Fold these 2 entries.
Entry 1:
Amino acid sequence: MTTERVLHVRSIWNGAISFGLVSIPIKLVNATEHHSISFRQIHTEDGGRIRYRKVCELEDREVSQSEIGKAYEDADGSVVPITDEDLAHLPIPTAKTIEIVAFVPGDRIDPLQMDAAYYLAAGGAQAAKPYTLLREALKRSNKVAVAKFALRGKERLGMLRVVGDAIAMHGLLWPDEVRAPDGVAPDAKVTVNDKELDLADALMDTLGEIDLGDLHDEYREAVEEVVAAKAAGEAPPEAPRPAAGGKVLDLMAALEKSVKAAKESRGEPQEKAGAETGAETEEEAEVTRLSAREATRATPKETGGKKSTSAAKKTAAAKQTPAKSARGTKKTAATGSTAKKTAARSASAKGGAKKTAAKKAAPRKRSA
């Protein structure tokens, strides 16, 4: 939005910027607007509008906006009327003045404090020179101005900075209005390794930057399509089915899959997953069904009257006939005797080998 366009927008506050001993008449103009679609409440049975009427509880009648004023309700329930004239004469210097209190680097301002944004338009020809002076001073210093001002019944904090050829002011929350992030971070101790950080960096590089001007509200556009279709007596468009995909079992696979998807969207050549990091491939990261064996192992045993198959087999094996037990004993004894005979033969063979070696050695000694 240019400064020229701002001048044609209705101002919401008139006052001056106090810059030391310099006073700059200005007009406060909203710098943002909302394009969200608003809905009306209706009676679902007949489509009648649901309205909220302002009724005086003493007279039991609806009153117009011109009859409505402000009042402060005390703890005991008593009401103290407060007029606009009372507020206009507040004993504070910021009632009609944006008072600059300091100039600081922009990174000193916590983004959590950012509130509504406004443009400060010069209030007449006499304000052009000091307005331009303040704007150029902010540009050259690479700083922002911290100011205090009063708007809509309360004193506020603001930050002045240069946007194009205009001066913008961001309303700021007071420091004590920003909550500390206690209890927000996960309690569990988590260690992130270098490979995971490398993949996260690769994903950030692949996604790269974007022109914020290319972004738009797709939700609002979809709502407009639904409204247009119903107004024309047509069926509203159906939502597209989400792409089917398995759950990712680990963070490394999720990062690899994200990098791959980002490269595909940009038409970049693909590399083999896990070539550099040794991480799981995409197929390994998909959730697979349990095999029959694993499913049986994972199924708890029944605790009722029926015994499991393995228990039945053990019971049957324990109930063998005496004859089978006897045959098993005989086989064991036969096996033992066979082992003894084999050992005896082996010992005899060793003894014969020793005798043969002795005979061969004897003639050699005689010839010597």
Entry 2:
Amino acid sequence: MAVQSLSEGRLTAVSRLLRSSALHSVVAAVLVGALFLVGAGADPVAAYGSVLSGALGPDGIGSTLTTGTSILGLAVALALPMRAGLLNLGGDGQLVLGGIAAAATGLYVPLPAPLAVAAALLAGMVAGGAYAALAAVCQNRFGVPLLVSSLLLGYPAMSFASYLARFPLKEDGSSLPQTRPLPDGVALPAFGASTVTAGLVLVALAAAVFAFADARTATGYEIRMTGLNPRFAAYAGVDRPRLTLRLMGLSGAVAGLVGAIGVLSFPYRFIDGSLTAAGHTWTGLTAALLASAAPLGTAVAALFFAALDVGGLAMERATEVPRELTQVLQAVVIVFLAARLRLTWRRAAKTARSKGGL
């Protein structure tokens, strides 16, 4: 019990440090962005105001929630293994496999529309989860680092999905690399006339389950302890290979779910490259890194980056400042976070050594 209390105290201290560092990093990035805006001859207050109004105003909130659906889902997918110190870089591959599996299921499974939608979502999750688990097998059985195996397995997955969209599933008479449209009714219900669909509810539910499991279950504690100190977790009896397999399977399943949601939303088909063109996988990874994979922090960071993405367009229209500035802000956030954490850890290590010498 004493060991567990000590470990939980260390986890709390680390989480407080990370939250403080993330907040400071965001503030520093905003100040650096303001300097860029001044250098470009723009008014920082007007530019940031246009970002907020463009992302959260009546004309932009729908786009923010639609973009946030993908970013939040992928952030949760990548935060799951990251919580245990594992890095899944194959999100794009798992995303497109989920999308193409959902498209094929929706086109060929003879079920009523509501059941076809459920089957397509399930197929996307199974495809993404199974493929992500393959990367874990490569590490557990063959010693290939997960970071390498997950990244490299993403490329054949995207090539395979591209082949299916361009040949067996291609729409007849179309010059675009896209599948045939899904049958009538095989689509996620939308909220009113907006582009926001029930997919937002699904990824929010995934984030809520992640948060509950992380805070309230023994498995969540094992995951946190493995991320904090793998050797201690192994000494306490955590089966790391099995945990890696489970987490990668769950991670890929959520990424595949996001891909299926993308296909079951407008334009209701799989278009080669459309799921990965926006770079939402890497934005989700950035959000998970910023929050150190904490469930609530990951969700907040994902929505923050979604608002930046959508608001950047409004800023470009209002101030003629390129929307790429928002991508610069994302990069600066991570740079400041990494630098601050590095300095903090070095200071802590130096203090520990000085106390040990005494």
